[in-house]
Design a protein that fits this description.
alpha/beta; Rossmann fold; two-stranded parallel sheet; 8 helices
Length: 218
């Protein structure tokens, strides 16, 4: 529902392409599949070359590694190719959201006919929906004056979208549950095993590929 909520937010607010951080997650892989299926330009931001390879094998056209020195140049290139003006950021803290806005602005300015001291008039939006980095969000305002940063949660979106859109989202998930919306898990545990020290140690880490499934019937 979160993945489809992001896509519907894009459509409702007049954007045509997306940027997504922490994109190697289960959610990120689902979003990649939805965007490929729906013909939506998507730029995935990950933090290692291994994650770039993984998403590329899953059909991702634009995946950039934030740990590389040429990250911002590669991100700007991807944003220019897709025309993305909307981003969803699972990291939250630090300067990543600001960097994305900066790259969007560089891309927008490259298409301007003339100079403006106020930057481009293309509106750029970043929604923070996670807190993998709990430090303050820092913005180096190098992206003009047409931008926004806000929070995004699924339930308020569903209330805004209305029953017709939400019902269509649920119907699609039910139809594609084992394909587009399938998930992988590192471990399946019972309710009792949730309380084990080993499970707690693993589940408390914010690490890609370590999602745990709780099976009450186990």
């Amino acid at each position: 529902m979160t993945v489809l909520g992001m896509v519907e937010t894009m459509r409702m607010e007049g954007h045509t392409a997306l940027v997504h951080t922490a994109a190697a997650s289960n959610l990120g892989q689902m979003l990649n599949r939805v965007c490929l299926s729906d013909g939506i330009g998507l730029t995935n931001i990950v933090r290692s070359s291994e994650q770039v390879t993984m998403l590329s094998r899953q059909g991702s056209v634009h995946t950039v590694d934030s740990s590389q020195e040429n990250f911002q140049a590669e991100l700007t290139r991807a944003i220019t190719d897709t025309g993305a003006t909307l981003g969803f950021d699972a990291v939250g803290g630090g300067n990543l959201a600001g960097k994305i806005l900066g790259c969007m602005e560089i891309s927008a300015q490259s298409k301007m006919a003339g100079y403006s001291a106020y930057g481009s008039d293309i509106y750029k939006q970043i929604y923070i929906y996670g807190g993998l980095d709990m430090s303050p969000t820092t913005l180096n305002r190098s992206f003009g004056l047409s931008w926004g940063v806000g929070g995004w949660l699924l339930m308020p979106f569903m209330m805004r979208a209305g029953q017709e859109i939400v019902s269509a989202m649920k119907k699609r998930i039910a139809t594609e549950l084992t394909t587009t919306f399938s998930s992988s898990y590192s471990k399946k545990v019972s309710l009792e095993e949730v309380l084990s020290l080993d499970t707690i140690a693993v589940s408390s880490k914010r690490v890609t590929g370590k999602k745990i499934l709780i099976n009450p019937q186990k």
